[in-house]
Amino acid sequence: MTRTWRIGVAGLGTVGAGLLSFLAEKDGFAPQGGKAVVTGVSARSRSRPRPFDISGLPWFDDPVALAASPDIDIFVELVGGSDGPAKAAVEAALKAGKPVITANKALIAVHGAALAGLAEAQGVPLLFEAAVMGGTPAVKVVRESLVGEEIHSVAGILNGTCNYILSAMESSGRSFEEVLAEAQRLGYAESDPTMDVGGFDAAHKISILAALAFGCAPSFAAAEIEGIDQVALLDIQMAKDLGYRIKLIASAERSDAGVLVRVHPTLVALNHPLAQTGGVLNAMFIEGSRIGRIFIQGPGAGAGPTAAAVAADIADVMTGAQRPVFQRPALELKPFTPVDPARSTSRAYLRFLVKDEPGVIAAVSETLAEAGVSIESFLQKPVDGSDGVPIVLTTHAVAESVLTAAIDRIADLSSVLDRPRLMRIARS
Ligand SMILES: NC(=O)c1ccc[n+]([C@@H]2O[C@H](COP(=O)([O-])OP(=O)(O)OC[C@H]3O[C@@H](n4cnc5c(N)ncnc54)[C@H](OP(=O)(O)O)[C@@H]3O)[C@@H](O)[C@H]2O)c1
Question: Is 348 exposed, middle or buried (0-12, 13-18, 19+ CB in 10 A)?
Fold first, then answer.
């Protein structure tokens, strides 16, 4: 007999509306021998116009009351935020022994280990496929399909807003500020864009992927984060002249020293699949001992794709599949040992402004050579109306500690007018 699963949905914004529209279109959702029926909803404003009719659905002013209601079997949290009502409601649902599905990467990145402990103690699933790469399978791929693999690294483009902004800056030749304003008008960026352009959203997602890939507790606080707000149009143009495209790359790498989780603007060779991931798309590489490299690309946000990911989690609850929330039981989860970024090695891009006078290039080259940094290529591009001449250098692979010491010395040269801007260059 088909079991009816009563679903409580807290949050009726982009994703919540997408989920309710999806379930209405499907007249419930009946995969895997079960049928999903919404039996309670909660949002901030009951009277706010919605793209679907909620008048027939039981309304809860408080998402915590919905989470604990005896009239629901599965609680779906689509409110957002690492703390506040989202956390309180998820905890209430788990304590009441209800399976929880969430799209909330901030919540899982910050409180994932504690919530996993609660879920596993109660013997109920805590699922979050939609939290990483929206509608593109990422969480289940790492947690389930690759559970037998020894994963070395996960890296990719995990924030569609930043990718849209960088792509539009390149294609239209407009500044970060102009493109951000357009993205806000089009609904691709929030009115407060800090979470996205500051790199925090991508850091939440890569923290979750690191935990799933390496079997450790998510540790958002250990992530090194730099956003795209300091990427100048000049950098995008100079990078292109050198054969690269700038992308906000989130990466998690495991070595004998520990795990390095970081988000930063990165130069990616133009023929690299990540360089060809444009607009709001997301993409990631997973590298492991046996699989070599896997590449996944697809929609990272939006009502339809994200609702489909939430629906897939609902189907998983219906099947009764029970596995650890992360790669191993919550009681065994430990925070990873963070690797000091200064010890990491990569090729680098340096851009700075110099006085237009003889001997400058020689002085910069000598300073870099003395510091142990080897130059790979060099580009000089006069810019109309500028007080100096922008110079770009790329280096051979160098330890970050060596590079930052060299940058300090270059910044002190009397012929250098600003502090060199550093970006890393991705491996091909
Ligand atoms: N948007 C995407 O494409 C996407 C993709 C992947 C993951 N996510 C994640 O999905 C979650 C929801 O995102 P969203 O874009 O749908 O957000 P959203 O459009 O801002 O919607 C948030 C919803 O939460 C409700 N809400 C806010 N505070 C509340 C409170 N105190 N009590 C009850 N309800 C409250 C809001 O109510 P009102 O409607 O009454 O204001 C709104 O319905 C977030 O965790 C986000 O990170 C989003």
Answer: buried
